[in-house]
Structures are given as C-alpha cells and as structure tokens.
C-alpha cells in the first residue's frame, strides 16, 4: 500500500516536472532542431550529392549539425527539469548570464579565429600528406589533441569563463539571496558548473564543424571513432580546468584574483603537458 502510494506520488511529480519543462522554449526549439536536421539539412545535402555540388553538401552538413545541437540542448534542458526543476531554473539563469555578456562573444570570436587558422594549416598539411603518404590521418588527431594554439587560448579562456561564477555573487551580495532560496548548495554549484561546461562546448564546437566540412564536403576520409574519442578527452580536460576555475572563484569575491589563481594553476598543468610533449 505504501509502495503504491509512493509510486503514485513519484508519477505525479514526474508528470508535473515534464509538463513544467514543456514550455514554449522547449517546443519551438525541438521543432526548429528537427526542421534544420531532417528536411533542410538532409535535403540540401542530398541535392549536393545528387548534382555533385560539394558546397551544397557542406552547407547541408552544417545545417544538420546545427539542428542536432539545438535538439541536444533541448534534451539537456528537459533532463535537467526532470531531475531537479530548481537546478534547471538556475541553469537557465547561468546560461542566460553567459549569453548576455559581451566577454563571452569576444571569447567565441577569438577561439573561432584560432580554429580557422589551425584548420587552414591542417588542410595544407593534409595536402602534403596526400602526396607523400596517402591515407595517413594523424594530422587530424593532431588538429584536435595537439593543437598548441588552442590550448594556449584555453589558458586565458577558462579563467575568463569561471572567474565570475561565484566571485560575482559574493561581490554583489546576491549569494545571500541565492542561499536563502529553496535550493541546496550542491544544486547551485552544479548549475554553475554545467553552464560553464555548455559554454566551453560552444568554444570547442568550431573545430568539429571544420572537420565535418572536411569529411562531407571535402570527401577526405578519416577514422571517426579516434577523432570522437579525442574530442571526448578534450571535453573532459576542459571540465577539469573549469572545476579548477570554479574552485578559485568560490574562494574570493574578486574576479581578477580568481582569474589569476586559475591561470597560475592551469599554466602549471599545461607546462607538464608541454614538457611531456617535447621530451
């Protein structure tokens, strides 16, 4: 009897959470993602393959990729509401704070420029490799994992992303309001960490777009699984760096101090990587 009542209560909570998450953002986002993914992206890609137009193939692949990204964000938001609606609202708040910050767009533009330059170098190197050793895909792995300029950029990007997460809350006094809200400290920390992780994913995303164009539009065949595994490693390293920045942001109310401490620790970690790379 008690088990049945508990199950009914859980079903009611799950149903209410699902209904709460299905707002206009979720519905419109899912419709837009599906439209970009299947009819528009796949249709343009099919036209490019049918009429031998590599440019159309690349555009179709990019549009489909954009649709998959939108659907992934909607699924993440839906899962967050199902797990904890309060933490999901905090996540919406933090992501909105990132998107309304001009520094975030400067960071995205800067990393896009770095990714573009690195991709140009990759294409040049792949052309040379095709002449000398056909089928060698190691430059693609190097583009993802051993990209020196990308990691140097991360040394500055990670402190910029994380310096305001908790330090700004302490400086402005909103941390007291946040702690008196019906949320736990764990939910606050997780929401801020997940928001920074989503933004880090946007920073890494241009490299995956370039490789997608190279594979579909350029018809350059390379092993997808090793590249995917390398990107997973890049993602987890970024998550570790973000956790370091979040930790130092929790220790002080000064954003500059938090950024400097994060940069010092990341520089120490990066120096061990460089020494191991060149040894």
Can you describe what's shown?
The chain is mostly helical. The radius of gyration is 22 Å and the shape is flat. The protein has 12 helices and no strands. The chain has helices at residues 2-21, 24-50, 54-83, 85-99, 102-132, 138-145, 148-162, 167-172, 174-180, 185-216, 224-249, 255-278. The protein starts with a helix and ends with a helix.
Summarize the structure.
It is built from twelve helices and no strands. By secondary structure, it is an all-alpha fold.
SSE topology:
Elements (H helix, E strand, L loop, with lengths): L1 H20 L2 H27 L3 H30 L1 H15 L2 H31 L5 H8 L2 H15 L4 H6 L1 H7 L4 H32 L7 H26 L5 H24 L1
**Main pleated sheet:** none
Number of helices: 12
Element order: H for helix, E for strand: HHHHHHHHHHHH
User: If you compute it from the alpha carbons, what radius of gyration comes out, rounded to the nearest whole angstrom?
Assistant: 22 Å
Termini, distance in Å?
Answer: 67 Å
Q: Indicate the proportion of strand residues.
A: under 5%
State mean pLDDT (0 to 100 scale). 77
Properties at a glance:
single chain, about 280 residues, mainly alpha, about 85% helix, disordered N terminus
